[in-house]
């Protein structure tokens, strides 16, 4: 597996070298919601060090046990962070979209991760070299606070999923997953297959298909070949457990930049 991971990352780097140069490093605007929360000064300082790159489906942004080279601020498309339990199939931890950042280990002072992050829906992201990001965080307290807040939101997200998966029904968990995925992607369209969602919830595909069919008949969602469309977001939230509100409010609350400098900065 480690050999295969190294090969995938090497192929990704090779593709980057073959592509024509990306947009210059003087990116002026970003669709990433985290970046939009920064002040003009901090935002421009970050954007000057970023380059906009395409995200291709199945592209591996980082893999477990392999040092990170870049961090990403997703602008469009979707990524999945997964983990493994022995020889079992990978299980999704988080679905990431234009409200997210890829590179949490760096904020915690680590260069490697026990997880894999891969692209599931093609799009674009702003990419920054790890060394440049770390150096910038040390100089910019506002960026540091924002990313530490994002780490806190991710921790709350993960702990809430543990409680949700052990206490709530498949229908509730499926509704919660759709609500959160739609929010992170910033779209009513959730372009994932039944198999993917079943894997994310660690349940059988047949159960997901039946539950989705009931949601379609009730007019809450519609299913297309490319994925799922949320038709009635209010009813979908009412079908979910309260975990979706805990998760979303954590991201909204902790990712807001406060005016107070961290004591250990």
Q: Can you describe what's shown?
A:
The relative contact order is 0.13. The chain contains eleven helices and nine strands. The protein has helices at residues 2-18, 33-36, 40-47, 104-107, 130-139, 141-167, 170-185, 194-201, 205-217, 233-239, 243-254, and strands at 51-55, 60-62, 70-83, 91-96, 101-102, 116-129, 189-190, 221-224, 227-230. It folds into two domains: 2-143, Jelly Rolls, CATH 2.60.120.10; 169-240, Winged helix-like DNA-binding domain superfamily/Winged helix DNA-binding domain (Arc Repressor Mutant, subunit A). The longest helix is centred in the middle third of the chain and has 27 residues, at 141-167. The radius of gyration is 19 Å and the shape is globular. The strands form two sheets. Strands 1, 2, 3, 4, 5 and 6 form a six-stranded antiparallel β-sheet that branches. A three-stranded antiparallel β-sheet has the order 7-9-8. It has 265 residues and is an alpha+beta fold. A hairpin with a 7-residue loop joins strand 3 and strand 4.
Radius of gyration: 19 Å
* N to C succession of SSEs: HHHEEEEEHEHHHEHHEEHH
- How much strand content do the residues show? 15-25%
User: Main sheet, how many strands, which sense, barrel?
Assistant: 6 strands, antiparallel
Note poorly predicted spans: 13-24, 260-265
Structural class: alpha+beta
CATH superfamily of the largest domain: Jelly Rolls
**What's the number of structural domains?**
2
Can you identify the CATH class of the largest domain? Answer: Mainly Beta
Relative helix content: 40-55%
* Helical segment count: 11
Mean pLDDT: 87
Shape: globular
Just name the CATH architecture of the largest domain: Sandwich
Oligomeric form of this entry? single chain
Count of extended strands? 9
CA-CA gap between termini: 38 Å
CATH topology of the largest domain: Jelly Rolls
């Amino acid at each position: 597996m480690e050999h295969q991971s190294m090969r995938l990352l090497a192929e990704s780097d090779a593709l980057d070298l073959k592509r024509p140069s990306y947009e210059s490093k003087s990116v002026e605007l970003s669709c990433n919601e985290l970046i939009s929360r920064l002040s003009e000064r901090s935002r421009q300082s970050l954007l000057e060090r970023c380059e906009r790159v395409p995200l291709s489906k199945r592209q591996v942004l980082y893999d477990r046990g392999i040092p990170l080279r870049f961090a990403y601020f997703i602008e469009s498309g979707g990524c999945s962070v997964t983990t493994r339990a022995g020889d079992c199939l990978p299980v999704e931890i988080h679905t990431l979209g234009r409200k997210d950042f890829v590179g949490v280990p760096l904020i915690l002072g680590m260069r490697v991760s026990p997880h894999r992050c891969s692209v599931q829906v093609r799009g674009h992201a702003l990419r920054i070299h790890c060394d440049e990001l770390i150096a910038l965080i040390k100089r910019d307290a506002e960026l540091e606070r924002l990313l530490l807040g994002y780490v806190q939101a991710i921790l709350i997200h993960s702990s809430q999923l543990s409680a949700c998966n052990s206490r709530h029904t498949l229908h509730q968990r499926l509704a919660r997953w759709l609500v959160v995925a739609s929010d992170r992607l910033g779209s009513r369209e959730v372009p994932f297959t039944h198999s993917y969602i079943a894997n994310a919830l660690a349940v059988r595909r047949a159960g997901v298909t039946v539950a989705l069919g009931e949601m379609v008949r009730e007019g809450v969602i519609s299913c297309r070949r490319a994925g799922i469309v949320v038709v009635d977001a209010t009813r979908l939230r009412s079908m979910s457990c309260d975990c979706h509100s805990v998760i979303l409010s954590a991201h909204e609350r902790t990712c807001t930049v406060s005016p107070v400098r961290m004591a250990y900065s």
